[in-house]
Amino acid sequence: MDSSYKILIVDDERFYINVLSELLKEQYKLYIAKSGEQALKRLSDNQPDLILLDIMMPDMDGYQTCLTIKQNPDWKDIPIIFLTGKTDSESETKAFNFGAVDFISKPISPATVKARIKTHLSLLNARQALEKQNQLLEEKVRERTHEIELTQDAAIYSLSMLAEARDQET
Questions:
Q1: What is the DSSP string of the chain?
Q2: What is the CB neighbour count within 10 angstroms for residue 31?
Q3: pLDDT band at 169 (very low <50, low <70, confident <90, very high)
Q4: What is the mean pLDDT of residues 39-52?
Q5: What b/e string do you get for 78-109 counting C-beta neighbours within 10 Å, with b at 16 or more?
Q6: With 60 as the cut, is the pLDDT of residue 2 above it?
Q7: 152 burial via Cβ count (<10 Å: 0-12, 13-18, 19+)
Q8: What are the CA-CA distances from residue 58 to residues 37, 73, 90, 95, 147 (Å)?
Q9: How many CB atoms neighbour CB 20 within 10 A?
């Protein structure tokens, strides 16, 4: 991966912010938020390619932050990976239901975090390439449809001219 990818780290614990920053700073451009509200502000200032989001935060928790992000049409496609101390399957299910693409329990494994980030950024790339390809194909279909319409118009005109030019005796 290249360092042009932007990752927003949202966690109220300075320890995990430091660990993740140290782990990812060589490969990605990082933005930090210590609360859900601050994360939403960072999103409107500079949209990241991926979000690492803690669940247990004061005021606006990770679930509510995720839901708010996914409800915004400009942000809904940003992959969100929950990093949390919650390890129960109910929390994991709830995270996925709110729109997360992955769930990593704390304490984190550096190799796991890096691999999952790489995977989700690759998926993001693939989805964007597919969308671009679809747009190109749609444009080609529009062009061809227009060409066919012009050809039909020319054929109809030619047939009508032929009918008018017909000899009355034959």
A1: --TT-EEEEE-S-HHHHHHHHHHHTTTSEEEEESSHHHHHHHHHHS--SEEEE-S--SSS-HHHHHHHHHHSTTTTTS-EEEEES--SHHHHHHHHHTT-SEEEESSPPHHHHHHHHHHHHHHHHHHHHHHHHHHHHHHHHHHHHHHHHHHHHHHHHHHHHHHHT--TT-
A2: 19
A3: low
A4: 93
A5: bbbbbbbebeeeebbebbeebbbbbbbbbebe
A6: no
A7: exposed
A8: 10, 26, 20, 17, 60
A9: 21
Q: d(Cα 118, Cα 138) in Å, to the nearest integer?
A: 30
Tokens 């047939």, residue? 159
98 backbone dihedrals φ, ψ, rounded to 5°: -85, -5
